[in-house]
Amino acid sequence: MTDSAAAESAWFAAVDADDLEDLDTVDTDAHDTTAVTAIRDGTAATPDNWPALAVETGIADDEDEYYDLLHTATMAATRATVTEREAADDRQLVHAVRAMDDCERTANELAERLAEWAGTIDADAGTGTAFARDIVTGEHALESGHEPIASLAERVVDLANEADDLREFVERQTPTVAPNLAALAGPVLGARLLSLAGGLESLAKKPSGTIQVLGAEDALFAHLRGHASSPKHGILYMHDAVRGTHPDERGSAARAVAGKVAIAARVDHYSGERKPELEAELEERVETIQARTTAADDNGDGTAGNDAENGGESDA
Amino acid sequence: MAMALPATTPKMEASPMHNALPDGVERHAFGGDGDGDGRLATRGDPVYGEPTDGEWRAWDPSRSKLGAMIELEMETNLAGGDTVLYLGAASGTTVSHVADFAGPTYAVEFAARPARDLLEASASRPRLFPLLADARKPDTYAHVVESDIDVIVQDVATRGQARVALENRRFLADDGRLLLAVKARSEDVTRDPAAVFDDVREELETEYEVLDTKSLERYHADHLGIVARPL
Prior knowledge:
The complex is a heterodimer of chains A (316) and B (231). Chain A has helices at 3-7, 17-26, 34-41, 50-56, 63-87, 89-119, 128-137, 147-177, 179-185, 187-197, 200-204, 208-212, 217-224, 240-243, 250-270, 277-298. Chain A is an all-alpha fold and 316 residues long. Chain B is globular. Chain B is built from seven helices and eleven strands. Chain B has helices at residues 10-14, 65-71, 93-101, 112-123, 161-167, 184-187, 193-204; strands spanning 25-28, 39-43, 52-53, 56-58, 84-87, 105-109, 128-132, 149-154, 172-183, 208-215, 223-230.
């Protein structure tokens, strides 16, 4: 094989030496240089002795210089891709929803501490973040000399406010990142699914059976080890279609929701088009599932207080 | 078992019970923790808060499958100064040690988040080349990674680990070595690890000769270390 032919598939084939020298100076923002593009987007069926070919074609004076250039170019290319991927909207959303959960959990934990503390000096002390708000607004006055308690209440309120702000951000952002997912699962649950899957692409690549039990990993692995029955649902429990269904049929409901969520995530990732029919199909399916228990209730042997009036339609 | 090796390098005198360590890997006692002959160490910038002793930094076998393979005296054939292709570099914990004693080291990692840390580790190592690519698709980095690689280190937590090794065989020199850490749970969490290892080995043997296998259990649950060379 002739060397010049081989060198054509090398990452440095279309790169001239000046461009490579520029890399050193532009460094982190070198997204568009030919070298960065060549490393990121290039391909070759087989490797070759690139260092020797680079010296032969005059890209570098010797192998040492070649490796220096390669280091600079791979650093710039990888940094560019990492920055791009991490700045992607779905990654931002994942961080936001996780931060929201952290703030909520911490606010509640501190509110509990606050209630316990305030209870020791004040028989009328309330509970929860609402009580913290009452202290901060002055609605619930503390006797003087208890500034540390009042100060803690302020922190609780700040954290609760932060959680609310983050929730607003998530509710606004999920529909732009994953419109079908947001419509089908709701923006917050949609964001939680993205968070559990690790991003939109990963969610789009998961089979619906995996999505059905996202968030129930402990139960799933206990099942796989043979200690337990398989979980019916994970985080999808928070979906109205699952929660609003009789416990006996929640597995079916979760399966139906997971199936549609899987499709929604794929559409969002690969095309981005809105498909409102997904929601309609899910609604119809869930009605059918819920009708099973309603029918059982009508026959007088059920216990759930499901008072929907359509009944009878059985489904295989 | 390694006692018959010619004791040519100075570190062999310090540690005659062990296989020859690659040049640039030594045993050091960090803070006098009296751990037998001392702990594995390489020379370079600290990466993940590991203990240091002067310019030497500890290489923890329970955080590194390759470290475990060396600690368990597998014949890695690493000499120091080797050209290495590292598949599954993650945050760069292990590959930073490799780059400390090896020659040109290509580090392939698929996920963006750990690659951010890998970039940090690469910054102070001029012969460590980070690549954000999928180890299952060598076409996407064969235009960068050179041929006739001395050692491929593979630690990818994905299904089809044997497939990855076969796909990447094209980079390996005829007398090169594949150092593979197989994670049973990545193939199938429900199956008996021994059965998974058998399958991986069988698939591997279509294009490799397996020279040595050893359970890494002492440091990594359900992992098997494999040393192989291309057929």
